[in-house]
Specification:
By secondary structure, the chain is an alpha+beta fold. It has 4 domains: 46 residues, no CATH class; 57 residues, RNA polymerase II/Efflux pump adaptor protein, barrel-sandwich hybrid domain (OB fold (Dihydrolipoamide Acetyltransferase, E2P), Beta Barrel); 74 residues, OB fold (Dihydrolipoamide Acetyltransferase, E2P) (Beta Barrel); 76 residues, K Homology domain, type 1 (Ribosomal Protein S8, Chain: A, domain 1). 18% of the residues lie in helices and 30% in strands. It has a 5-stranded mixed β-barrel with strand order 11-12-13-15-14. β2 and β3 form a beta hairpin. It is flat and about 60 Å long.
Length: 277
C-alpha cells in the first residue's frame, strides 16, 4: 500500500484500488511509478516501447518513450538525443509513425476558428455571455448574431440555457473570447441533447477525415455535431439518440484504448434499425 496524508492506493497482483475522492492524478501516477506499474496496466504484460500494435502506456514528463528511429514527434513529446521524451502526463499513442502523448485530462483553450457548442450563461442589453466549457466565458456581441438585434432586445432572441453552434472569432491577450454566429451552419440548437466528453477525445470521435463521426451518424440515423470544446450535439429519434449517447460515452471512457474500435463495433450490433422509431 502507498499512503500519503490524504491519498491511499492499494495494490495486488491484478488490481489497483484508489480512494478516488482523495487522490489527484499526479499522486496516482507516482504510486504507479513507485510500484513499477507505470508503463503497463495492472495485471497486464509490460507494454513495448511505443511500437505499432503495442498496448497504450502511461508516462510522466521526462520519461523516455522509446528510440526516435525515423518517427515523427507529435504533441506532448519532444526528441532529445535520438530518444522520444514525454513532456506531459498521459497515454502514449503512435499513429502513422507519429508518437504523441494524449493527456489524461485537458481543459479546452479557445482558438480562433474553433467550431464550438456554447450555452448562454448571461444576457446583457447588447451581448450574450456564453459558457464555452473552458476557463473563460465567450462573448457574443449582437453585431455577430445571425439576426438583426435592436439594442436592449437581446433577451427576445436568446435566453439563459439556450444552446448554440458558434465559432471563435478572436481570442486576445487578455483571454477575451469573442464568438460569432455569422457563418454556414452556425445557429441556435433548439432540439436534441448535448453530451460533454474529454476535449482530448474529440478527434477520436471524429476520426480521420471524420470517418468515425460519419459512421456514427449512419448507424443511428441522427444528426451529430462535435464541437472543438468537448461538447457533442445529438438530434434524432429516441432510440437513435440513446444509442449515439452510448457510443459517445464509450469514446469518453475507452477512447485511449487500442480496443476502442472493436468495442464500438460490438456496440454497433445493438444499434436501432432504421424505421424502428
Amino acid at each position: 500500500m502507498l499512503k500519503s496524508k490524504k491519498c491511499k492506493l492499494f495494490f495486488s497482483n491484478t488490481h489497483l484500488q484508489i480512494n478516488a475522492s482523495q487522490c489527484n492524478i499526479e499522486q496516482v501516477a507516482m504510486g504507479l511509478l513507485y510500484h513499477g506499474l507505470l508503463g503497463r496496466r495492472v495485471g497486464e504484460k509490460q507494454m513495448s516501447q511505443g511500437q505499432t500494435g503495442a498496448e497504450l502506456r502511461l508516462v510522466t514528463p521526462g520519461m523516455a518513450i522509446g528510440p526516435l528511429s525515423g518517427k515523427r514527434v507529435g504533441s506532448g513529446a519532444l526528441a532529445q538525443n535520438e530518444q522520444i521524451i514525454a513532456t506531459r502526463l498521459g497515454w502514449v499513442r503512435e499513429l502513422n509513425d507519429t508518437v504523441s502523448v494524449d493527456p489524461i485530462n485537458s481543459t479546452y483553450m479557445p482558438r480562433s476558428g474553433d467550431l464550438i457548442i456554447a450555452i448562454v450563461a448571461e444576457v446583457r442589453n447588447n451581448l450574450w455571455f456564453m459558457n464555452v466549457n473552458g476557463p473563460f466565458q465567450g462573448l457574443l456581441p449582437m453585431s455577430l448574431a445571425p439576426w438583426k438585434v435592436e439594442f436592449g432586445a437581446a433577451r427576445q432572441h436568446m435566453g439563459i440555457g439556450d444552446v448554440v453552434m458558434a465559432r471563435v472569432q478572436e481570442v486576445d491577450e487578455c483571454h477575451n473570447v469573442v464568438l460569432t454566429m455569422k457563418g454556414v451552419g452556425l445557429r441556435r440548437l433548439n432540439e436534441g441533447i448535448v453530451v460533454t466528453v474529454p476535449v482530448n477525445h474529440v478527434e477520436r470521435i471524429r476520426g480521420e477525415n471524420n470517418e468515425t463521426l460519419l459512421r456514427l451518424r449512419e448507424i443511428c440515423d441522427c444528426r451529430i455535431m462535435v464541437g472543438d470544446n468537448g461538447r457533442v450535439w445529438i438530434d434524432g429519434s429516441a432510440e437513435g439518440t440513446s444509442w449515439a449517447r452510448s457510443a459517445i460515452t464509450l469514446a469518453s471512457q475507452s477512447g485511449h484504448k487500442l480496443s476502442f474500435a472493436a468495442e464500438l463495433s460490438a456496440l454497433e450490433n445493438n444499434a436501432p434499425k432504421r424505421g424502428d422509431a
